[in-house]
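Here we describe the complex-level prediction in full. Unlike the single-chain runs in Section 2.1, the two entities below were treated as one system.
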Amino acid sequence: EVQLVESGGGSVQPGGSLRLSCAASGYMFSSHWMGWVRQAPGKGLEWVANMDQDGIEKYYVDSVKGRFTISRDNAKNSLYVQMNSLRAEDTAVYYCVRMDWASVDCWGQGTLVTVSS
Amino acid sequence: DVVMTQSPLSLPVTLGQPASISCRSSQSLVHSGGNTYMNWFQQRPGQSPRRLIYQVSHRDSGVPDRFSGSGSGSSFTLKISRVEAEDVGVYYCMQGTHWPFTFGPGTKVDIK
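The structure predicted for the assembly as a whole is:
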């Protein structure tokens, strides 16, 4: 069974940093693009970033460019996102997602990030 | 960015009756390679989203056949042939043709 388990969420002050992790299991992690999608409380879904199997191609939504960095460790079956200079508008549940055919075929349970003073 | 528009945003339905959600994109979703990367997701209350349909009309494994997707270019539809109680939730369309991938605002389906 494919599983994606996020961790690392929490509360942080504006301007602070957090690193989210996603542990993948049940499939060959190194064969899939991976990404992060977020959902602000009571709101819709927003793509944040994604990356290819080898960590060479990386894409970010404009609102996080220069502040977020997506990365992966195929040896550890793990995906990460380093989030710096956090803003109130980054408050959301962050989902780790497995991608296929320019889509998402598996979602984690999400981890909540709250940016507030 | 490609803007995805859904209608209606709220859809009260009667159990056993059909339901239909429309999604339009601000640009054609036909990729240069020929595929159309249009997807539909269901998010039940308190749960993570789940994909129902990919590439316009391909149903994911385990998705009941009462769900179907259709459309082309920039106009797409998700249909539920006979709504069941477990179909309550928010439905999102999503395009994967142009970066950044974008979602529609969601259509909330509930039972009358």
